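Write out this protein's structure.
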Amino acid sequence: MNRKLSIVFILLLFFAQNIFAGANMMVMGVEIEGYRDTPVKKIRKVIKTRVGKEYSEYELNKDIENIYELNNFNEVMVDVSDCEGGVNITFIVVEKHRVKRIDFKGNRKFKDKMLKNKIGSGEKKPFDRKQMIDDVDILVNLYKEKGYSDVTVEPFTSFDDEGQEVALTFFITEGNKIKIGKINFIGVNSFRVKKIQGLLDISKGDIFKPEELEEESKKIGVFYKNEVGGQAVLG
């Protein structure tokens, strides 16, 4: 019985020694692989894990987050391997495609150069799908500001995996420019029409903007609520 207890004690001591040794592992090497266009100095600048420091899984996870925040990479992986005296750490990154060119099709109101200056995507920049979607909204709002309320914008991408590049094209259907015609007021009994008309900042001939119609409707609604306790709808 005593012999078995001794064996168990020796095994527990062996495992305890390994656990405590692992807790104090030193970083012996830090390498970065897979980068193409991004300068390695830019990556190293955001990495806090250093040779000679104690290995920290928490710090390693923060390093991965910091590399992702550079917005240049689709994927970031880490390989931790044992070596004499501690561990070697290798960061393996997969870069995003670069935007080779940006084209616009169907635009007559605005020139290509002007549209390129408005959007967030840019030639030679890393391709960001979320930014591309945001660019669609930017273009749509730009046209709506000029009265093209029916405008549609469709993005299209063409990837060149060999060259790690992407061509981005925005297909624009401008539609017709819409202006305000006659403004009618229905159900106005308590006040003269001119009184209600005077509350508005829009008039016949102005460019039609749906968001402005909503704001004007609120103005009339507030006026009626304050004056007669009623509610008005502009449509």
